[in-house]
Specification:
The chain is of the alpha/beta class and 357 residues long. The chain has 16 helices and ten strands. The protein has a six-stranded mixed sheet with strand order 1-2-10-7-8-9, sandwiched between helices. It binds ligand F0G. The site of ligand F0G has 21 residues, from helix 4 and helix 9.
Length: 357
């Protein structure tokens, strides 16, 4: 049978029964790509892999959680779903709701969502409202509305989202035949670090892996409430996907960090953009800026000697960086970073001159 998505593949680990109508776009099964470039930068014998979640059907990791959340919503006879979003959740919710025939309501922070994501939510037919406030304000409203009206919340506070997203760790372990030694991941609302840690723990308790990775979470400097230890009223970062000042799964993220012996650190916008460009120009991978916080994070830690100091006693320790969303989500950022193409006259001579022949 051909591949049919994460519910089909990992049913035994998911809250799915015979009665659950499965809504899938064949999400998951994303590539784990070896990066010789980053392995060289980190050095000390490490092997660095990139879990490229940008190739999911709507271009981000959210699809893993959304297939479960929307399938369960349908099973529970919901007619409408709602989320607050910095963009990717809304794109995914809108697509899966469209397939399920459910109404989808979306609240986004006005003016702070990448164009690709907005166009996805709109084309899939969601009712999109741009709130004059940030993500945290929008999520507060969604929590209130969904607790008062018969609308299912599909943010990662919905436990089915976490269940689906934990399959990312299963895939990594299935592919490596073991857990990675370090798992690097961007942190926004902190659902995904919670989900990956849950996935690793479940595989460990089922004997599928015999050690657990250290979880390395990275926030953007201007939106780093967990690192600073207090909520940020007015978070700012170029990585709009993680422009969040008061993460819903704050405690769970700290738990993942503490239980795994890892850390949650911050990276500057400049470090994020540098990682973004390096990934694109050296590894051929176009990931959205927020995704690159994981790569910026390991480069920063490596400069501080972290990986040397914490090297496991084995030949080739592994680091997996999750690249959470596709670069095409935010084309404006790419062009602002790198510039626009030069315009030339339509003549061979002029072109050859430009390309140096
Ligand atoms: N990377 C990308 C591309 C994201 O879209 C998000 C979150 C994260 C990382 C952080 O994941 O919130 O689970 O810690 N995006 C949410 C959204 C908030 O609305 O699309 P997290």
């Amino acid at each position: 049978m051909s591949y049919q998505g994460i519910i089909h593949r990992y049913k035994q680990f998911l809250p799915i029964s015979e009665k659950t109508p499965i809504v899938t776009l064949n999400e998951g099964n994303t590539p784990l790509i070896y990066s010789s470039y980053l392995s060289k930068i980190i050095g000390n014998g490490y092997r660095v892999y990139l879990k490229f979640e940008g190739v999911n059907p709507t271009g981000s990791f959210k699809d893993r959680g959304m297939t479960v959340a929307i399938s369960k919503a349908l099973e529970e006879k919901a007619t409408a779903v709602m989320c607050a979003s910095t963009g990717n959740t809304s794109a995914s919710a809108a697509a899966y709701a469209a397939k399920a025939g459910l109404c989808c309501f979306v609240l986004i922070p006005n003016g702070h969502i990448a164009l690709g994501k907005l166009s996805q939510a709109m084309i899939h037919g969601a009712e999109v409202l741009a709130v004059e406030g940030n993500f945290d304000d929008a999520l507060k409203l969604v929590r209130e509305i969904t607790s008062e009206y018969p609308i299912t919340l599909v943010n990662s506070l919905n436990p089915y989202r976490i269940e689906g997203q934990k399959t990312g760790s299963f895939e990594i372990c299935d592919e490596l035949n073991q857990a990675p030694d370090f798992h690097a991941i961007p942190v926004g609302n902190a659902g995904n670090i919670t989900a990956y840690w849950k996935g690793y723990q479940e595989y460990f308790s089922h004997g599928k892996i015999n050690f657990l990775p250290k979880m390395l979470g990275f926030q953007a400097e201007g939106a780093a409430p967990i690192v600073r230890g207090y909520p940020i009223a007015n978070p700012q970062t170029i990585a709009t996907a993680i422009r969040i000042g008061n993460p819903a799964s704050w405690e769970q993220a700290e738990k993942a960090r503490n239980e795994s012996g890892g850390l949650i650190e911050m990276v500057s916008d400049q470090e994020i953009i540098s990682a973004y460009q390096q990934l694109a120009s050296k590894d051929g991978i176009f990931a959205e800026p927020a995704s690159c916080a994981s790569v910026a994070g390991i480069i920063k830690l490596s400069l501080q000697g972290y990986f040397k100091k914490n090297k496991p006693k084995k030949e080739s320790p592994t680091i997996v960086c999750v690249l959470t969303g596709h670069g095409l989500k935010d084309p404006d950022c790419a062009l602002q970073t790198i510039g626009k193409p030069k315009v030339v006259v339509a003549e061979k001579k002029a072109i050859l001159k430009e390309i140096g022949y």
